[in-house]
Records
---
Amino acid sequence: MPSMEFLLATGIGWVVAVGLYLLLRGRSFTVVLGLSLLGYAVNVFIFAMGRVWSGAPPILGVGEQLADPLPQALVLTAIVIGFATTGFVIELALRSRHENGSDQVDARRDAGDLPS
Amino acid sequence: MSGLVAHLPVLAVLLPSLTAVLLLLIGDHGGDLHGGHGHRRVLWARRLSLGSAALGLLLAAWLVRETAAGHLLVYRLGDWPAPFGIVLVVDRLGALMLLLTALVALPALWYACGGWDVHGRYFHAIFQFQLMGLAGAFVTGDLFNLFVFFEVLLIASYVLVVHGLGRERLRAGVHYVVMNLFGSALFLVGLALLYAVTGTLNMADLALRVPRVAAGEAAPLQAAALLLLVVFGFKAALLPMSMWLPGTYAAATAPVAALFAIMTKVGVYAIVRVHGVIFGADAGASAWVVMPVLLPLALATCIVGALGALAAHSLQRLVAWLTVASVGTVLAALALSDAAAWGAALYYMSHSTLVVAGLFLLSELVAAQRGDAADRLVPASPVAQPALLGLMLLLAAASVTGLPPLSGFIGKLMILQAASAHAQQAAVWSTVLAAGFLTLVGLARAGSVLFWNVDTSQPRRGASGASPRLIGAAVWLLGAGVLMSLGAAPIQRYTDAAAMQLKDRAGYARAVLGPQGEATDSARPYQGRAAPGAPR
């Protein structure tokens, strides 16, 4: 039976790999998806860097063992910033698609590309 | 310290952020520029924005005066004790960077008020948010807050890059945003690793704890340092990560590009703070972990920047490549890692920021008078003010390539002197001098095409010439470079003192964490149980 740490580590690695693959695609839609996946992986990574606890609330005086509350606070900040920037990059990609008539990140118009 | 002085560090961040909020309240022109509400709104927004930037300059000058004597201004938000709460710290370097930001921001804003600010929406508010992010990054004493302020200044810069819209800007803007978001993800990974190993992200606390990590456990720490070098190197345009810069800066409007001259210096500043101080000389197993990588990369950046300047086909792109070359020179001097070289690097960095920002403004002034050719380096109709603009370009070019007696020469001389005692002297000397020569050739080519190789059969365009307001902004920046050579001795004393202060990690930790050094009643890195003496 694999340990929790092993599952978490391989899970993060897999999501990063998928995120990187999507990030390197040519369409801005897949690039945004890749960025989001990468953001999720990073958030779980920060969470895991406070060590993996089970059944330990991050509250003083509740149990004998406590989880580290700081990475959880850091993750919250990272999530909020990631959410805002994803919203912005989607809007920017839409605008670029509108002006350039192409969804390619380098604004190139290929044969068989979107109708403009 | 009493009264207002104690609150100066936080005021440097609050002033632009409150101004930005007020500017949002004033609202946008909404396309109504001639008479009417929109026009009045634009006028008030300009007054408020300029007034705030001028006040920011005074504030920064005050901070420089306060820190010049050598003590650190430490501001604990909410008066929480240092490693746990948020701290702002202003030392000589932080105050210098704030002053530099204000010195670039005011003329860039003044130039933008000449008309660029109404080519898009909410220019002034976004500009002030950008200043807030810059000020925050320079005063924060905590790496996670550095990340947050990086995000503030980046989000503002995403909007400023595409200010004015148009195809080229949007294309460059998408690249810029996507790459920066990837950089932010790496930044977070680096921070998480640092926290996992040391249990803190406070810079002063890190400076104490990183040296204690034993050699066997230092691998994640060194990985974090190298990841952070990638992130900061990306911002600073260090070589493998510098290819985004010329396209982005060439596509941005002139005042935005001028302000962005300081953006690369944020990366340089972060490298000094993290790799120079936290992973510096006394960092135990992780001492100077990135310096063997940094020096060759910086020298290569220098050469590639100069070659790019030589090959550029438009003036603004040429100036963007000069930014890359100057960052290479600064980072090479930093990688020499002794105090004299750092002092020289800080002097050179201040000079190059001001002159490059001036050159960005100047390139648009020239472009505006060349009709359809704009700033492309092809023969075109003569400019309306060849003597004035030509002399300004000559002054800027001489300064940026390092010809005596201007500040670029003094800065390069200081760097070369500092390198003379170093093992890599030959590499540094030959690279810096060769890059200087190459940029000289590139600028000479640009200047002769722009001003001499003209097609006199075509009429002069824009016969009235540029308005004194626009010229004034460029003169301010170039003049500041000249003043830097007149006042070289006191400025060098200040930058040398700033470098010495950076070397004193114990003094920094004492100032931030208090005389007792560090909190002893806490368990870090956290292992699941509170420390025995901790209150429950």
---
Amino acid sequence: MPQVEIDKVEPLLDQYEAQRTNLIPILQDVQDTYRYLPQEALRKISKKLRVPLTEVYQVATFYRCFSLVPRGRHVIQVCLGTACHVRGAPRVLDRILRDLKMAGPGTSSDLQFTVETVRCIGCCGLAPVARVDNTNTHPHLTQTKVGGLLKKYDQKADEAKAAREASHAKI
Amino acid sequence: MQRFRSPAEVKEMRLCLEALETTRPCISVCAGSGCKASGAQNVLDSLHSELKKRGLEHTVDIKSTGCHGFCEKGPVMIVWPEKVFYNGVSQSDAKDIVNSVTNGHKPVEKLLYKDPATGVRVLHEHDVPFYARQKRILFGNNGKLDPKDIRDYIKVGGYSALCRALTEFSREQVVESVKKSGLRGRGGAGFPTGVKWEALCASKTKPRYIVCNADEGDPGAFMDRSLLEGNPHSVIEGLIIGAYALEANAAYIYVRAEYPLAVEHLGVAIQQAQQCGLLGENILGSGMSFNIHLVQGAGAFVCGEETALIASIEGKVGEPHPRPPYPVQKGLWGKPTVINNVKTWASVPVIINKGADWYASIGTERSKGTMVFSLVGKINNTGLVEVPMGITLREMIYTIGGGIPKGKQLKAIQIGGPSGGCIPASMIDLPIDYEALTQAGSMMGSGGMVVMDEDTCMVDVARYFMEFLEEESCGKCFPCREGTQRLKEILNRISAGKGTEEDLELLDDAGWMIKETSLCGLGQTAPNPVLSTLRYFRDEYITHIREKRCPAKVCKELIVYEIDETICDGCHACVRVCASEAILGEKDKAHQIESAKCLKCGACLEVCQPKAVLVH
């Protein structure tokens, strides 16, 4: 575990009172910071809240939004709500997985993408939908649109974006 | 922001805001999650820059509002004061809209709603059939106010119910009014709210808590999200009135983390209410002190169940507990707690303002008021619909929903989320009320309404819900944990063409067993999708079993893709998209599908212009 990573946990923990009720909000904050829950962070949380590590682990594995393994730079949430399901979401999911050469939802080997399914993000009117990085909702998806969607967030796109921002900063 | 010290000051503020009301044009753009995904932010940006370009920033207002409900046609907007309704707006339309607003208000014809039946363009929102039959007492203000500005809410009469309650009502009278109104829990089970409140009052234990359940987990439902995004103060006002009536010390709003915009708007609204003295110490000089805490869920469907929700707020895993004791006896941290749904809380100010009798006059004998549905699936007008209880499914689907797309036949309506059931097209004249739906094997639920057409396979639907519930079962009690797995396995078998007729008996038996013996509401209702499809669509199950055929052509193992060589024009579009190189044939000559290689993904079907791809 790289030391630099875990450094952010202490200041984050300092914002909270040592109460059991703060366990889930703290885990959410850690997850937001690292995109997953590093083991060392769980130990620190357990110590601070005086909640046994087993219970911290129990909570961390019970709720869907936590991950104990590192996640990709971009998280694609494919909605499998009822409306999306009847309008063909499973096929869109299959296509995404096939294009990324993944056997099932999870993280791609280059850590670029994490594909997960979500049961309804409440955009049923635009079904089928997928949401990327919690903010960009892509409506009315079809298999033909999947290629373009993935291209928008692949490594090349990230590099181009970084280059753009760097040149912007120079100006 | 001004801090109010008495109810009179709130009224003064409202009168002041009303007096400031000008005839200045205002473009209110829906910026709910749906319209945002359709590009509402771009529309807002280009409207702003268009106005700036012409130096009109101070002549025309732009408002970014919550969900207007008509998600299908988004982004939508209303131009005030003429109340012109535009739909399907794109950023390139900004110029035309600003032109129209500044030059004599001649509406932009192409952006007006076009009635598909008559082809006539409709000018106002209330004349669009989708809206005309609704009764929007909870959602009516969504299109009028900026959810991030408390003054907008006060201007439309917000917090006047709280002022009334504090000055004209005793605590008991508030509880009595809620009871008399006939309001029932809008979260699903439909327990009378007033009775629940009375039960809390019977206990002398302090402190007491109230909770707003905004863990809207049902797939295909987004009413609560839209209300929290579009009018968060209406829920906050309901909670403050509830706190007054129930002498609660604090409230918790438990909201899904999957709804980032709702979380943001609620946070802003709570902060503004605190600054205005509507939350905190000595609210409006009444001596009452009360605060609201926002808690984010972490992605567990079972946390919509009240005892699991309480465990989750306490920082534990969201596992339910047996009831009794009910939360009103022993809830959050062992103290008496009232938990109500978002819409239930938002109904409270309406009841106080308009009176219990007025509220009770809407709806049917046992189901009062309005109900909000998210009308989705195979329907023309997808969106949020608020209707009086008792309206028939036919009116919902055909008058408001505009019927089924592409001239297809209606097959079933799934109501109540995973706990609900499928109602067949033959029962379309069923009125929507708690009892009628339960009797039909479904339930009101929180208001998800998914319309299914002839291309939907009911075995697949049952399988879909079982998969969902198996994943979301918390695993605490055996019948739900194991039962949902077994049901899913049997359904998988049937949809793969490997089922037997004994499987149907097994589904039925296991279903009833899970219903009778599970610990919480999730398990007790989990078999509903299976039992209701078995009840109304047994034929379809039988066809899967005996003929090894899926009539709706959905179940992958039972279908074959083929190209009709007489129709195929050899354009190669399908060859390009096929992921498994299963399509053979030269360009400009008819293609064929090699079935052994075919993944049945349907990509070819999607791209084929002449419709030469057939599914058997």
